[in-house]
Amino acid sequence: MWYAIVMAVVLCLPGLAGAAGVQVTPQMRKDLTEKLTQQCLGREAEFARKGYSKAQTAAICKCAMQQTGALINSQTVDYILKNGAMPPDMQRKVASATGACIKANTRPPAP
Q1: Please, are residues 29 and 69 in contact by the beta-carbon 8 Å criterion?
Q2: How much is the pTM?
Q3: What is the CA radius of gyration of the chain?
Q4: Distance spanning both ends of the chain, measured CA to CA
Q5: Tens digits of per-residue pLDDT, 85-94?
Q6: Distance between CA atoms of residues 42 and 57, nearest Å
Q7: Looking at residue 46, what is its pLDDT?
Q8: How many Cα atoms are found within 13 Å in the side-chain-facing hemisphere of 31?
């Protein structure tokens, strides 16, 4: 799921389609993280089917997409634009970060 969101957002960012040697600025990273989070929140029904509450979904999306946004740099954008997929190391990092976000936002509160 996350890979599709990241790919859709990166490929649709203004000025990136077909661009090579893109310099990722802090503003671009912020915009990308916001777009990723909105895309993730748009899948609320999918989260609900898996048993997550609306609050859990929001927390998971925010956490996971912030982690994913932090991984975006010029090399990853170039790779995505050239190959139509995230680099394998980024896929592993996104999966790991997402798993940690789910775990952090779904465990029962400490007694």
Answers
A1: yes
A2: 0.77
A3: 14
A4: 33
A5: 888 998 898 8
A6: 10
A7: 92
A8: 10
Q: CA–CA separation, 63 vs 69, rounded Å?
A: 10
Q: Which residues contact 94 (CB under 8 A, 6 or more apart)?
A: 2, 3, 6, 64, 67, 68, 71, 86
Q: pLDDT digit string (tens) for 27-79?
A: 888 888 888 889 889 999 999 999 999 999 999 999 998 998 888 888 888 88
| pLDDT the model gives residue 57 | 93
pLDDT of residue 110: 56
Q: What are the structure tokens assigned to 64, written together? A: 């996971």
How many residues comprise the chain?
A: 111
pLDDT at 68: 87
Closest by alpha carbon to 71, among 100, 94, 102, 48? 94
Structure-block tokens of residue 75: 């090399």
Beta carbons within 10 angstroms of residue 91's beta carbon: 14
63 residue type, one letter: C
Q: Is 63 left (phi over 0), alpha (psi -120 to 50) or beta?
A: alpha
